[in-house]
Amino acid sequence: MRRRLELSQSAADTPAVVLVLVLLVNDPLPPLKDTSLSSHLKRLQLLVGEGCLLVAHPGRRISVSPPHHTAAPRRSELPSRPAAAPSTAETSRAPEPGPVRFSRRRRRRRRRRMKRRRRSRRRRREPACCLQLTLGGAVRRPALSSASFSRGMQTVTLIPGDGIGPEISTAVMKIFEAAKAPIRWEERNVTAIKGPGGRWMIPPDAKESMDRSKIGLKGPLKTPIAAGHPSMNLLLRKTFDLYANVRPCVSIEGYKTPYTDVNLVTIRENTEGEYSGIEHVIVDGVVQSIKLITENASRRIAEYAFEYARNNQRSSVTAVHKANIMRMSDGLFLRKCREVAENYKDVKFTEMYLDTVCLNMVQDPTQFDVLVMPNLYGDILSDLCAGLIGGLGVTPSGNIGANGVAIFESVHGTAPDIAGLDLANPTALLLSAVMMLRHMGLHDYGNKIQTACFDTIRDKKVLTKDLGGNSKCSEFTADICRRVQDLD
Amino acid sequence: KIKMCSFVRPFLLSVILTSMFSLLRSDPLLPPSTQQVHRDSLVCASQPPPAQYGGRHTVTLIPGDGIGPELANHVRELFRFCCVPVDFEVVNVDSTMASEDDINNAIMAIRRNGVALKGNLETNHNLPPSYKSRNNLLRTTLDLYANVMHCQSLPGVRTRHRNIDIMIIRENTEGEYSSLEHENVPGVVECLKIITRTKSLRIADYAFRTAREKGRTRVTAVHKANIMKLGDGLFLECCKEVASGYPEITFDSMIVDNTTMQLVSRPQQFDVMVMPNLYGNVVSNVCAGLVGGPGLVPGANYGEDYAVFETGTRNTGKSIANTNTANPTAMLLASCLLLDHLKLHAYANMIRRAILSTVTETRLHTADLGGQGSTSEVVQSIMKVKNFTVTF
């Protein structure tokens, strides 16, 4: 009997340990019904008691090798793959060939041949008769994992972008180098290309890099007018199903605005709502625009918001809505938030009308903590909060996708008028990169870089033009690098 | 040479003089000096109803929920004190009842009287969609298409930004507030946002006309046409069309998220803003917060035939109801707008002057402005203001 024990990437966050145990397996274990991590670990304990060889590969797999005499199990005996495994969107399978009509005898011989080939392939690949069990992805990766499982370099897809994008990306790379962060950058360009079906898509090498590394850092992208294709941001969003936009707004000490002590996070649903793009001209002069709210998307964003609050020690989550007017749509959103709140009793849940939030935000922003809302309200409120702390030039932003993909970006424009003149302010991209480090679990590097950045801004000696100084981008970057190295 | 009789010349002179008099002074009580006290006499599309029964006007009063009833009482008290020739017809609307009879009675009363002063009616959003928002119902039935809110920084109120003077004109009947929603597939809800050419042209025309009458130089249209290309694109197109007829007024447009960002960093750049319904809600609340809060700004809803006045941010104030801590300024300034609409400018200016002197000079503030005063103290202080007399 052979089974394969495979840890999915999410569960492999714990440091890889090589366990060597001797295990004797006689009877096949009953198929797993509950695919949670704890049940799999309990099962491992059972196996440990009987004696088996357990080898953990750094990153992905723990393969368990029982003694040689056991045979491979039938496919029907293996536990079914859990639903939360990496989606088939990642694995690009070639389309299977259509059925070919051969005689029955020929078909039987063909089947036996394939079975033999498969068996020999399996024997060749793994150590003789390994025991394999698939561990489920039911353990959802929290927004901030406690420690990266790999001590080595993490690959991050870097998309420099247009305009000032390349300069600020270079600045961020320099600062990361000075901080000796274990990040390996993979630069890719995204431009819209027409795919085989006539649909616009991002270049396949960028997609493949992103799927592999799962983490991306993106500079500002140009939004084309009358180019025939949708904006790149929209394409990226659709490709990777980036459903949550997270924008932490924290007042920067040293960059004075009328609002001090702002410390809130806006979590905005990024895929549906008012921005569904469905519009019709009913009759000449009457236009209808459809706002779409679905149960799944609302539940997903609410769950993300509460997970984020829990993982980042935030005390309350506020749902922003206009259910007095849009009873069914915002009512559905609100209901889903309430349902999810039941499972997170440690986080306080409140609901507030959009106009009340706007009114109170402008008078006293300290009363808010985490805000979760549909697309349009999120757009307006996140920009309002960015304005409170000093504008888009200093605001980080992250987009979380469905398959563990996360793209962190700077939300300001490409600023073509200062492109190439070494005048750009890399703070937004840098703070987004710090957010990315925290997401990956590299908190100490993140804190170091953030402290250096804030110290530079507080000092006011070397500031770029938009922050009130007249230094160049390279000087600002060099100052931060120096501080990072001093902090070591 | 035209030969005239000896008595014709003085007769002609008197006719000419009285006709000039009646043209220049619509209100016989209006002395010239009080005309320029506060530039807030709003012009609406319609004429106020003629005063009946000895020069007294009848106005519908809808107290509403929360702090509404107590503020309505203060308004009546103040009007009685100032001997304002206005009688209130009180129509109570119970927002907890499922039937719409109450609100229909109120609408009937407003149709009868032509003007109304209204408190906010609470909408319980946990009720099913068959229960429509009473406020929205009133606005759409009476076709009060323009909501006007004038946000000005007051000298005595401490805010983070100074010298704000923004007039917000918001389309009040269509847009996202059409209340057209359906669930085709379980778990998927669609909400329709309707933008029409006629209503967009109407609101743009109102905005530019008001800007011209008030001597404003710039109108900014707030939209999201980069995403909602057809809907907000139509709105923007209508605004541009109307702007071409007003060459002395600068017209520009701004996307709503950029607008909110600019409002919290540099609100002094805005003059008149015109926008569809939902963005109007957001922007008016942001501006109200910038000038000092929901207790300071009055709002007016104008239609072709009717006008309804209320607080700018339309808050029920449930949490502070009956605690005597609400700020009466917004409701009292709304009643001044009402008097301006009825062409009783002398009374309007007198009351406005008294309110503003209480807020700015005496600095008697309620809790929302950081003070210790109660509602009744503020109202008493208004009534005790020096030189609080109607000058005829």
From TrEMBL, chain A:
The places in or outside the cell where this protein is found are: Mitochondrion
Q: Which PANTHER family match?
A: DECARBOXYLATING DEHYDROGENASES-ISOCITRATE, ISOPROPYLMALATE, TARTRATE, ISOCITRATE DEHYDROGENASE [NAD] SUBUNIT ALPHA, MITOCHONDRIAL
Name the GO cellular-component terms: mitochondrion
The cofactors named for this UniProt entry are: Mn(2+); Mg(2+)
Show the Gene3D superfamilies listed in the entry. Answer: Isopropylmalate Dehydrogenase
- Where composition is biased (Basic residues), the residues are 102-125
What job does the chain carry out? Catalytic subunit of the enzyme which catalyzes the decarboxylation of isocitrate (ICT) into alpha-ketoglutarate. The heterodimer composed of the alpha (IDH3A) and beta (IDH3B) subunits and the heterodimer composed of the alpha (IDH3A) and gamma (IDH3G) subunits, have considerable basal activity but the full activity of the heterotetramer (containing two subunits of IDH3A, one of IDH3B and one of IDH3G) requires the assembly and cooperative function of both heterodimers.
Q: What is known about its subunit structure?
A: Heterooligomer of subunits alpha (IDH3A), beta (IDH3B), and gamma (IDH3G) in the apparent ratio of 2:1:1. The heterodimer containing one IDH3A and one IDH3B subunit and the heterodimer containing one IDH3A and one IDH3G subunit assemble into a heterotetramer (which contains two subunits of IDH3A, one of IDH3B and one of IDH3G) and further into the heterooctamer.
Disordered: annotated span:
60-128
Swiss-Prot/TrEMBL catalytic activity:
D-threo-isocitrate + NAD(+) = 2-oxoglutarate + CO2 + NADH
Q: What PROSITE patterns does the database record attribute to this sequence?
A: IDH_IMDH
SMART domains the record matches: Iso_dh
* Primary site of residence: mitochondrion
Q: Which family does it belong to?
A: Belongs to the isocitrate and isopropylmalate dehydrogenases family.
Sorted alphabetically, which InterPro entries does this protein's record hold?
Answer: IsoCit/isopropylmalate_DH_CS, Isocitrate_DH_NAD, IsoPropMal-DH-like_dom
Task: Enumerate the GO terms in the molecular function aspect.
Answer: isocitrate dehydrogenase (NAD+) activity; magnesium ion binding; NAD binding
Question: Would the keyword Mitochondrion be found if you checked this record's keyword annotation?
Answer: yes
What UniProt keywords apply to this chain's record, in alphabetical order?
Magnesium, Metal-binding, Mitochondrion, NAD, Oxidoreductase, Transit peptide, Tricarboxylic acid cycle
Record organism: Amphiprion ocellaris (Clown anemonefish)
- What's any GO biological process attached to this entry? isocitrate metabolic process
Q: Which parts of the sequence belong to the Isopropylmalate dehydrogenase-like domain?
A: 155-480
Q: Name one Pfam family in it.
A: Iso_dh
Q: Could you tell me what this protein is called?
A: Isocitrate dehydrogenase [NAD] subunit, mitochondrial
Superkingdom to which the source organism belongs: Eukaryota
From TrEMBL, chain B:
Which UniProt keywords are present, listed alphabetically? ATP-binding, Magnesium, Manganese, Metal-binding, Mitochondrion, Nucleotide-binding, Signal, Transit peptide, Tricarboxylic acid cycle
The answer on whether this UniProt entry bears the keyword NAD reads: no
For biological process, the GO terms are: isocitrate metabolic process; tricarboxylic acid cycle
Q: Which cofactor does it need?
A: Mn(2+); Mg(2+)
UniProt cross-references to PROSITE patterns, sorted A to Z = IDH_IMDH
- Signal peptide per UniProt: 1-26
| GO MF annotations in UniProt | ATP binding; magnesium ion binding; NAD binding; oxidoreductase activity, acting on the CH-OH group of donors, NAD or NADP as acceptor
Q: Please list every transmembrane segment annotated in the UniProt record, as residue ranges.
A: none
Q: Name one Pfam family in it.
A: Iso_dh
Q: Name one GO cellular component term.
A: mitochondrion
Give residue ranges for domain Isopropylmalate dehydrogenase-like. 58-382
Q: Where in the cell is it found?
A: Mitochondrion
Per the record, the domain of life is Eukaryota
How is the quaternary structure described? Heterooligomer of subunits alpha (IDH3A), beta (IDH3B), and gamma (IDH3G) in the apparent ratio of 2:1:1. The heterodimer containing one IDH3A and one IDH3B subunit and the heterodimer containing one IDH3A and one IDH3G subunit assemble into a heterotetramer (which contains two subunits of IDH3A, one of IDH3B and one of IDH3G) and further into the heterooctamer.
Q: What does this protein do?
A: Regulatory subunit which plays a role in the allosteric regulation of the enzyme catalyzing the decarboxylation of isocitrate (ICT) into alpha-ketoglutarate. The heterodimer composed of the alpha (IDH3A) and beta (IDH3B) subunits and the heterodimer composed of the alpha (IDH3A) and gamma (IDH3G) subunits, have considerable basal activity but the full activity of the heterotetramer (containing two subunits of IDH3A, one of IDH3B and one of IDH3G) requires the assembly and cooperative function of both heterodimers.
- PANTHER family attached here? DECARBOXYLATING DEHYDROGENASES-ISOCITRATE, ISOPROPYLMALATE, TARTRATE, ISOCITRATE DEHYDROGENASE [NAD] SUBUNIT, MITOCHONDRIAL
Into which family does the record put it? Belongs to the isocitrate and isopropylmalate dehydrogenases family.
Q: What is this protein called?
A: Isocitrate dehydrogenase [NAD] subunit, mitochondrial
Query: Which organism does this record belong to?
Result: Amphiprion ocellaris
